[in-house]
Amino acid sequence: FNQGMLNYFEYWKFKHPAPHDFITVMEKTSGLQLDWYLNFWMNTTKTIDYGFKKVTSQKGGTLITLEKLGEMPMPVRLTVTLKSGLEQEFYIPVVSTFGAPKLSVQTQAPWPWTHPEHQFMVPYAFKDIAKMEIDPLGFTADVNRANNSYPKQEGQ
Fold this sequence. Notes:
By secondary structure, this protein is an alpha+beta fold. It has helices spanning 2-12, 19-30, 35-43, and strands at residues 50-58, 61-68, 76-82, 87-92, 106-107, 117-122, 129-134, 149-150.
């Protein structure tokens, strides 16, 4: 976002941009299609709420089932922290983003916005996982962060 804002200013300073020019610069900077994002933020009052529904031990790893409780689709970043202290970030794009961020994360299959649940496997044994958290840096406007941690944090 910050780099996109710098690029937008540099390109459009002393000019007269239209609203779509902002999205164009942000798409070029991020490498993602963002029409869906603009549409949901500008033309709806839908909210964002993602949470853990179920976590189960499976052969070869741990199966995570997330649920979309709000109506606004957003990419999901999830951090898995192992008991050893190792952290691994996973990224689940929205189908309509047509791309992935330029980050060192494990990108999963896209989550269709019409599906209330999404499952994916992490290659760590259930017994080795200390905690998991959706959007640990607070990048999204999730309306209920109480369901963003597994196991649930004290006081939530």
